[in-house]
Structure formats: structure tokens, C-alpha cells
Design a protein that fits this description.
With 81 residues, this protein is an all-beta fold. It is built from no helices and six strands.
């Protein structure tokens, strides 16, 4: 799955993850995330979703500066059967 992003601050450790909508903000899927590699905008490719359901792509800024799990951007979507 390709996730397009924009408006990121450009830190090397900004990152994006895809999780089930019910996942707490301080948790993520260890197989479905990627650093943005310092880009302000662009896209990342993450493992595809096979299971139908409600999901959310979440953006987090500058993991190395504090390791917090403050969601800076989110986009909800549905995977259909």
C-alpha cells in the first residue's frame, strides 16, 4: 500500500504507520510502518492490508527527539472484502 504524505517537518525520524482504527495512539503495527527519511512530502510503501476493516494512516514527527507517540496527522479509510 502506498501512503502519500505532505506537510511533514523533514526530520530523519518522522514516520508513518497504518493501524486498525481501534489501536491506541501510543501503539503501532511493527510490520506496517516506515520513516519518511527527512522528506517534507512524498510517499512510503507499506505492507498491504488483506483483512477487511477500518484503518488509519498516522504520521508521527521526530521519533529520535523524544520518542513520543503524538499523532500529528491521520487519515481514516476502509478495506473492503
Amino acid at each position: 500500500m502506498v501512503v502519500a504524505f505532505g506537510g511533514f517537518p523533514g526530520n530523519a525520524t518522522d514516520w508513518i504507520t497504518i493501524v486498525a482504527i481501534s489501536t491506541a495512539d501510543d501503539q503501532h503495527d511493527s510490520t506496517r510502518w516506515s520513516y519518511t527519511e527527512g522528506k517534507l512530502q512524498g510517499s512510503v510503501t507499506l505492507d498491504g492490508l488483506q483483512t477487511p476493516g477500518e484503518y488509519e494512516a498516522r504520521g508521527y514527527f521526530d521519533w529520535a527527539a523524544g520518542g513520543d507517540y503524538i499523532v500529528r496527522s491521520r487519515h481514516r479509510f476502509t478495506v473492503l472484502p
